[in-house]
Every structure is written in C-alpha cells, then in structure tokens.
Amino acid sequence: MRGKADSFLPLDYKKTLFKLIEVLRKLKDFAIKLQLSELETDIEEIIQKLAHDSFSLAVVGEFKRGKSTFLNALLGADILPSDVLPTTAAINRVTYGLTSRVKLIFRDGREEFIEIAQLKDYVTQLTPESEQIASQIQEAIVYYPVSYCRNNNLDLIDTPGLSDRANLTRITLSVLPQVDAAIFVMMAQSPLSTTESNFLTENLLTQDLGKVIFVITGIDLCQSPEDITKVIQYVKKQLQKIIIEYAKVHFEPNSREYQSYIRKIGELKVFGVSANQALQGKVTGDEDLLKQSRFPAFEASLKRFLEQEKGIILLQIPTYKAIAYSQRILQGIDSKNSDLLQQQEELEQIYQKELARLKTQEDNYRQQLSDLISPEILKIQEQKVEQRVKRERAKVLIEIEQKKLPQMTAEIQEILAEVYSISDQLRSVTGQICYSCSRINRVNAKFCIYCGTQISCPNCNAKLTTQASYCSKCGQKLKFSPKPQK
Ligand SMILES: Nc1nc2c(ncn2[C@@H]2O[C@H](COP(=O)(O)OP(=O)(O)O)[C@@H](O)[C@H]2O)c(=O)[nH]1
Ligand SMILES: [Mg+2]
C-alpha cells in the first residue's frame, strides 16, 4: 500500500514545466509582435529561470553543528570543507557541473576559478589568510558532477552558520529570503540551544514552516537507539512549544491564522541522522553503516519533497506570471486596435487636407489659365491620383494589421485557458496535501493514505488545502477526526 502510494505522482512536474515554457515562448512571440519590449524582457527572464534556475535548498543552523558534513553526506563525497574548528566562512553553492571546479564570485564583481581542493584556502576561517579572502567572497559556486543535483535540478547551499561572529550570522541570514527551502541542522549532543531557538523564532518561523526540514545529526554519538528516539522526541516537543509560543505572540487566540499556524505542528519533519557514518558508508560502499546512519530514511523524505512540493513551489509563481502576461498582451492588443483606428483617422485627415490643398491650387490655375490641359493642371491631376493610391495602400496595410488582432486575441484566450488549467492542477495538488502529515494524496482521497486523517470537508466533500481551517466551499468550520488506516 505504502509503496504503491509513494510511486503515485499527482503532478507530472517535467511535463507541466515544458508546457509552461512553451506557453511563455508563445507569449513572448506575441510581445515581440506587439512591440511590448518590456514585457518581452520579463517573459524571457522567467523562461530562463524556469529552464535553468534550479531549486535552492540551504543548510542552516549554528556553527559547528555538522552542516558541511551533512551536505557532504548528501552528495556522497567530501567536497565542502569541515573541521572540528569553526570552518565555513562564506556561502557555498553546490550545483551540477560536468567538470568539478569552483567559481569564486567576489563582492566587487570579480570572478575567479579554482580547484575544489583549494576551497579550504578561500572560504574558511581556518587561517587568517583564508578568512581574509572569505570576507571578500560573495558566493563560491562549486560545480560538481553530482547526479543528485542534476536529477533534481537542485542547488545545495552551505552557510557559515550562526555564531558570535556578527558578520557570519549576517551572511547566513542573508540567504534565507533567496532560498526555496531550508534544512535546519542541529547536533544530537546539544539539540536546540538558546541561539537555535531564537533563530527559529526570529528568522525561520517567519518563513513557511512547510519549507523547513529539521535534522538532528551526530546520532552515532548517542549511547543507544532509545537515546536517539528520546532526542528526536525532545526536539519535536521543543519545536511544538516554540511554535505555540510564536503563534500566541503573533496571532489572535483561536483566530484562523492561529489555528492554521498551530496545525503546522503536524507537518514538522524531524530526522535523526549520522552524517559522518553516511558519508563514510557512501564513500566506502558500506551498506550496513549507511543504514545505521539513518540517512536513507531522510533522503527518501527529501526525495518526496523534491519531487512533489519543489515542483509546486517552482511552477506556481511562473504560472501566475503567465496569467498576468496573457492579460497584459490582451490589453496590448486592445491598445494596438485603438492605435490602428487612430492611424486610419489620421490618414483620412491627411488625405483630405492634401486633396483640399491640391484643389485650391487647381482652382487657382484654372482661373489664371484658359488651357485645361496645361502641364501644371495635369501635374495636379497626377498628384491627386498619387495621393489616392498612397491612401489606399496605407489603408490596406492598416486593415491587414487589424485583421490579425481578433486571431491574436483568440490565440491568447487559448493560451490563457491552458495556463488556467495548469494553475488549477497546481491548486488541486496542493489541495491534496494532508494537513497532518503533509504528504500528497490521490486526487479524490477523503482520508490521508499515510496517516488516515480526513482531508476533504465532511460537510460538502470539497477538497481542502493545507492551511484551511474553514471549508472554502461551504464555509463550515472544520473538525478533523483522524481515522485509523485500514
Ligand atoms: N560524530 C559525528 N561528528 C560529526 C557529524 N557530523 C559532523 N561532525 C563533526 O562536527 C564537526 C563540525 O562539522 P562541520 O560539518 O564542519 O560543521 P559546520 O560548522 O556546521 O559546517 C566536525 O568535526 C565533524 O567531523 C556526525 O554525524 N557525527
Ligand atoms: Mg561548515
């Protein structure tokens, strides 16, 4: 049952992505035709973002909590410098590249390529020299042929972490608004210190909790499996307390927002792992050690997150933008139509004015000259014909342009229908996320196939979103009664 459900993907991310890019390309063509150059640039930017920009997942936490080691374990290679001493001193972005190398982007705009082995001389605080260089670095982009990043179109970001060094804390905080999701790493020996709790309250809880995954690393140092369970339970409880406190301070008691926030407790993803064992297990091919590290369970959950939620997060904004662009193009067509009508009017005015001028000239000549076929009069006759031909030609060109517009409008309406269907699809997928365990369920699921929680409105059967505390269809206040899974 579980395996079957795991393999069920309610949204074909790649297919939807390609469709959205195709739609945006069509919209860009229309923007070019209508000479909406600003819109053309906006659309191209979003196409580039969709085609190339990846999902970014940052690892955050206090310094020396095993963040870099954890990322190395995920990558299955010792890439990022880690040490018993506080190490990372700059933002390191790991991204897919055919050949491994590092691009250093300095704060003054300079760029420099180095070997991965040299990374520790540039982005760490291990020596005064490296620390001095690190302070000038905006970001180190580590290109590495890691299939994990390529397959998931994923950038992994290592941060210096929170410490008593204000500059390093600032660097860590500065990445938060730019990332799509975060992994909060703690150590099993000292889970949820005061700094960590404060960081959660002040910086992470203000983001969407659904996009934060909590990892307790270093479980190999726990005495027994019971101790591991204890530490995970402790962290979960503490997190729940922090969330409740946060909700109490920030929302009216029992308001929708309060309820919605409190419900996020059910979505908490907390994992206990040993990054050291996982890295060693992966590097040496020791399956037992890898299993012991509990890393595969974390990776399976991350995979699910990347396949489903990542896709939704990445597609949602461009979809809304595509709708807005289509509407701007429709407005563009309207104003083009008005322009053409005005051009027609102006053309007629110019023609009539020119005709009147020629007529006055002709009348003058006729009064002065008795010869009706004098060269001057013949010339005026010719000019009149020329003006008429010119007017007719311009009229035809305007009419051709005008005739294109209804066709364009029809095509944009078709595109809009397509984008709306993508948008509905995304909405229906998010609507199937179980509010309790935050896994994505089948289209018509009434009870979460994972945890048994009822996920459709008991009153009218409407599908519910993760945040809903009232049914959006019938307005009924929702009470959930979890049912045991059959
Ligand atoms: N025993 C154990 N030690 C770990 C684990 N992960 C990291 N460490 C150690 O913790 C120290 C700090 O690790 P590092 O990755 O540099 O931490 P960061 O500052 O948060 O990036 C290093 O000495 C690591 O070997 C783990 O899973 N188990
Ligand atoms: Mg580090």
Features:
14 helices, single chain, alpha/beta, binds guanosine-5'-diphosphate, 9 strands, binds magnesium ion, 3 domains, Rossmann fold, 486 residues, 9-stranded mixed β-sheet, disordered N terminus
Give me a quick take on this structure:
By secondary structure, the chain is of the alpha/beta class. It has helices spanning 2-6, 13-33, 37-52, 67-75, 128-134, 147-152, 166-175, 194-204, 225-250, 256-263, 275-284, 287-292, 295-368, 375-431, and strands at residues 55-61, 92-96, 101-106, 111-114, 137-144, 154-158, 181-187, 212-217, 270-272.
Descriptive account of the structure:
The longest helix has 74 residues. α4 packs parallel to α11. The protein has 14 helices and 9 strands. By secondary structure, the protein is α/β, with parallel strands linked by helices. The protein has 3 domains: 240 residues, P-loop containing nucleotide triphosphate hydrolases (Rossmann fold), CATH 3.40.50.300; 100 residues; 51 residues, no CATH class. It is elongated and about 125 Å long. α8 links the parallel β7 and β8. Strands 4-3-5-2-6-1-7-8-9 form a 9-stranded mixed sheet, with helices on both faces. Bound molecules: guanosine-5'-diphosphate (GDP) and magnesium ion. Guanosine-5'-diphosphate (GDP) binds next to α4 and α11. The site of magnesium ion has 6 residues, from α4.
